[in-house]
Amino acid sequence: MEKKKGQDELLRITIHMKAHYRFPAGSHYERFFKEIKETGRIMGVKCPDCGRVLVPPRPVCGECFSKTEEWVQVGPKGKVIAFTSIYFPFIDGTTGKPRPIPYGAGLIQLDGAFSAINHILEEGDPEKLHIGMRVEAVLKEKREGNIGDILFFRSIEE
Amino acid sequence: MGRKVAIIGTGQTKHCSSREDVNEMELIYEAATAALKDAEMTIKDIDAVVLANMELFEGRALPDMWCGEGAGGFMKHAFKISTGGTSGTSGAISGYYHVASGLFDKVMVVGFEKHSEGNASSGMALTDPFWDRHIAAAAIGNFALSVSEYMADRGVTEEQSAKVAVKARRNACNNPHAHLQMPDLTVKEVLESPVLAYPIRRLEMCPQSDGACAIIFASEEIAKKRCPRPAWVRAAVTRHDHIYLGEVKKRLTIMRSLREAAKVAYDIVGIKEPLKEFDVAEIYDPLTYAEIAWYEALGFCKDGEGGKLIDDGITLMSGELPVNPSGGVISTNPVGASGTIRVAEGALQIHGRGGKRQVPDVNLVLVTGYGVYCWSDLLILSSRPG
């Protein structure tokens, strides 16, 4: 049962742990990240069977179980198909530290892509966000070859 | 279809935010011994043990290795199933397969989680390192995205969502095992609770709980001998959708994996009008909006009418189809056990052992599990072996 006030202190141990991991990207993800780092282009892959253009560039089409080979440039503009604003301090899985709040997040369907990318929106006020709004990827100046090379998506007037 | 299989016993711990009085092995032992008692069996009667747990929340790899003996798996056929939120229902489906296959006669399934030992937020941060870690904001963040889409598509309102929270926490008061029991909760209070990820408020989301739940599956011969009113498993279906959220089209609005699982299971059992034919549903509701979306995906109503079901009280205890008399996941969420609890709660409605949460004359029960971005498990339980 939940510990009541005044109950004897129960024995517990606390462990803080640092762990290290290395993740090889594989040929598809490596190409995506090299491309965005070197040229700033966002690339997707097209399934030879169903024709869906996937970003992230899935090496295997989940629907067809086919190896994807054909590369297609997508974006950098697109539309928000889902959005939120995060108000609770959540741990950034890349640093282990809580992200500053609040911030906007969305699923962004880049022009030319079938799937959407889950990323950060520059606008964090939910009153100023809506489904269908047009956005554009804003890239880092000094890119490193990871998804953080896209800083966020900024709303645009068209 | 395999052999006929029934659930003949269930057992649960008291679930709450922190079971500091027990370690995980003791927690599991409580549920396992309660289920054995319910089935009037001893561990010697059990041929095989299936454990279900969502790894990493407690910071131990292979949790079954550190606590599995608490479920009586020593020198038995025993292994663990881990499929995220669906772990508990997938474990139950595995237990069913074990007996249906004819290879085992009496199988115990134990789902468990002790959220208080770790930090669910750290566990949830361990997503795909290339695409998700940079952005992932736990179940709340990714659900919030889908809720924005669902509200826009179906016009479901915040008030309808809050009504689901009120129903769940009030039902939980009739369940001695439930975590969040809030007899006086109001729609206004739910709407005044802080926004965690727009538009989701704290009281619209499931809690993190410590708890375990055990179920005993038996072959036809044993079930008929040992249980006055066995809960027969009439269908068990699993469907997994895409693994990247952005590839799942309109998760809550369409919920393809649940729709597909329901279609297959309803065909097996011959269900034509789910709202009329089921007596109870125990569905895996990670948050209020999902419960309304599942009403639509499960065919309780037409698309776009899920909110009306809660407005009209159809899914209350007094309604035509009580949904989650237990209080559901919104009230109790030891995640590796949450699916097992759904199956146990469905079975005990047929056993007639539901106590204050018992719905009268239950013959047909729908049970679902939900996991990862869009995985679904679905079971249909019946008082008749079929």
Straight-line N-to-C gap of chain B:
11 Å
Radius of gyration of chain A, CA atoms, in whole angstroms: 20 Å
Beta-strand segment tally of chain A: 8
Number of domains of chain B: 2
How many strand segments of chain B? 11
Secondary-structure element string of chain B: EHEHEHEHHHHEEEHEHHHEHHHHEE
Overview of the molecule:
The complex is a heterodimer of chains A (158) and B (386). With 158 residues, chain A is mostly beta strands. Chain A has one domain (26-155). Chain A contains one helix and eight strands. Chain A has one helix at residues 26-38, and strands at 42-46, 53-54, 70-74, 77-86, 103-110, 117-121, 134-139, 150-155. Chain A starts with 25 loop residues before the first helix and ends with a strand. The model of chain A has no long low-confidence stretch (mean pLDDT 91). Chain B has two domains: 5-120 and 208-226, Peroxisomal Thiolase, Chain A, domain 1 (3-Layer(aba) Sandwich); 131-207 and 233-382, Peroxisomal Thiolase, Chain A, domain 1. Classes of the chains: A mainly beta (158), B alpha/beta (386). The interface between A and B is large, with 49 and 47 residues.
